[in-house]
Structure formats: C-alpha cells, structure tokens
C-alpha cells in the first residue's frame, strides 16, 4: 500500500480565477507561497501550484484573494523542471488539493466580503449557495 499527503500552509500569490475543464468541471489553480526564515535572517519562499476542483474551486474563487492565508491538504505531488529567463535550471512544485481551509478571519477582509466559515474547510461551509 502507498500513501501520499502534503499539507501546505501559506499565502496566495495571486487572485484565484475560475475556469472549466472540457467536461464542465470547475477548476482553480492556486499559487501558494510558503515562507521560511533562515538562521541568517534571510527568508526563503517556496511556491506551490495547487489545483482545486469542483465546488471547492468555486468557493475559493468567491472568498479568497491575493494574500489570503490558506491550508491545502494535497496529494499527487509533481515536480516540473524548467529553465528560467536567465538560463538557470529551476523547478515548480504542483499538487492537487483534496481540501482547502480558509485561515483568514472575517476581520481580515477589507473589501467588504466576509468569510462565512471561520477557518472551516470549504466543503463544510453550509451557507455557500450551490
């Protein structure tokens, strides 16, 4: 038996955008930054590209924005190597979310949109209208 679980907690690097697969399934790709402070005082940021499907994808787009704090429970981690503009090798870490938890409180939203879940997972929110 094999098992893979990745838990990512960080901030969104851009506003989520909803799109649909050819069969009509809603999907959103999130860019999540995880910051770690090093001993020398510098900060190391690791970026994860996380795909969210179905109703969670719609909730993410409705309630989250650039800078929002999230926790993503993921599986299917993949590494995609690429060459940067200056010719250096780099890699992108991609995963598929099984669950997204909104970590911001309603007071953290300054644009007038309140978050209805107080840290609960997107699929546990009962007052989302879908």
Would you mind describing this structure in some detail?
This protein is mostly beta strands. It has a single domain (6-124), classed as Nucleic acid-binding proteins (OB fold (Dihydrolipoamide Acetyltransferase, E2P), Beta Barrel). The protein has one helix and six strands. The chain has a five-stranded mixed beta barrel. Mean pLDDT is 84; it is low at 110-120 and 122-130.
Assembly of the depicted chains: single chain
Q: Radius of gyration, rounded?
A: 16 Å
What is the 3D form?
globular
- Overall number of domains: 1
* Low-confidence runs of at least 5 consecutive residues: 110-120, 122-130
Named at the architecture level, the CATH assignment is Beta Barrel
Secondary-structure element order, N to C: EEEEHEE
SS-based class: mainly beta
CATH uppermost class:
Mainly Beta
In spatial order, strands of the major sheet run 1-3-4-6-5
Q: Into which percent range does the helicity of residues fall?
A: under 10%
CATH superfamily: Nucleic acid-binding proteins
The description of the largest β-sheet is: 5 strands, mixed, barrel
**What is the CATH topology assignment?**
OB fold (Dihydrolipoamide Acetyltransferase, E2P)
What value does the average pLDDT take?
84
């Amino acid at each position: 038996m094999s098992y893979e679980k990745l838990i990512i907690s960080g901030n969104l690097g851009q506003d989520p955008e909803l799109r649909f697969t050819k069969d009509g399934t809603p999907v959103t790709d999130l860019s999540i930054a995880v910051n770690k402070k090093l001993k020398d005082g510098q900060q190391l940021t690791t970026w994860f590209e996380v795909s969210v499907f179905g109703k969670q994808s719609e909730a993410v787009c409705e309630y989250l924005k650039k800078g929002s704090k999230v926790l993503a429970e993921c599986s299917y981690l993949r590494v995609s190597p690429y060459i940067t503009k200056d010719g250096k090798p780099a890699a992108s870490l991609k995963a598929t979310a099984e669950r997204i938890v909104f970590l911001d409180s309603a007071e953290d939203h300054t644009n007038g949109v309140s978050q209805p879940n107080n840290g609960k997972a997107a699929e546990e929110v009962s007052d989302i209208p879908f």
